[in-house]
Amino acid sequence: MGKHSGRNKKQTGQAGDSNVKQSKVGDNSLKGYDEDMAVFIAISQELKEEGNKLFQKRDHEGAMLKYKKALKMLPRNHIDVCHLRSNLAACCMQMGLSEYPRAMCNLALEVTPKYGRALLKRARCYEAFNRLELTFRDVNTILSMEPKNIMALEISERVRGALEKKGLRVNDTVIELPPEYVEPPNAS
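^ that's the sequence the OP posted. Answer follows.
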């Protein structure tokens, strides 16, 4: 039971040792990336919450700025991108901006195609521009996922009434053209 002579230890120049060092270096860089991303996501979450508070106080411009900053912190496919774009659309709608809310909803739906809030906001945008067929499509998509969504049901009823006033029949999810319908000339 004496001192170890050190013969059992690997020498630093051996091949097995360098592979271990390389994998540790790779793990550290991935871990560093994950830690950095976690920090960005946390900052984005804080900005989103600040934006929500500003929105509640009816400071829509301030809320928009917070939401835009929060968006810049996230990877493009992160779930919060959908929520932030939808929130931006709500701000724009409150501010009376026209096309921007619909574009924001479209971008939100690129990330999460069945996000009900974005569909509902886009339907409201379409309704505001009297694009009733598109409104009807979005509302029916929402109602297929959430049959008791009160806002979607209300919009659906309004759109049905408006389409029927135009002489179109609406059956559940289909808009039927009357036999005498003639396509209006293109205004372009």
